[in-house]
Amino acid sequence: QKQLVETGGGLVQPGGSLRLSCEASGFTSDYYAVAWFRQVSGKEREGIGCISARGVFTNYVDSVGGRFTISRDNAKNTVYLQLNSLKPDDTGVYYCAADPRQWGTSRCLMMGYDVWGQGTQVTVSS
Q: Among 25, 48, 63, which Cα is nearest to 94's?
């Protein structure tokens, strides 16, 4: 059974940083894309960005403004989301999702993800 588990959320002051982890299990290979999403209070879930199979390509949504970085450690079956210069508006639940149908290494799309983690809470407050 394919499973994703997010960790690393917590309370951080404005301007601070966090690194979220998304550990995958049950996948038969490393050839799948992973995306990060978030749901902030009062808003619909929004995409942050994605990383292609094997971590060759990344794609980000404009709204994160270059503050967030996605990376991948294939040996650990883990994808990371580095959050820098955090603002109170970044408070919310952060989710990772995987799509084994996106097996290519040259691109990833922000749609079609069907394996989801349970989410991890990020709170930015002084």
A: 48
Short-list 123, 120, 108, CA closest to 12: 123
What's the first-to-final CA gap in the chain, in angstroms?
40
Question: How long, in residues, is the chain?
Answer: 126
Distance CA 35, CA 19 (A): 15
| pLDDT tens-digit readout, 8-47 | 999 999 999 999 999 999 998 889 999 999 999 889 999 9
Q: If you search the block for the tokens 């989301």, which residue do you land on?
A: 81
DSSP string, 57-95: -EEE-GGGTT-EEEEEEGGGTEEEEEE-S--GGG-EEEE
Q: Are 23 and 117 in contact (CB under 8 A)?
A: no
* pLDDT, tens digit (0-9, with 9 covering 90-100), for 106-126: 899 999 999 999 999 999 999
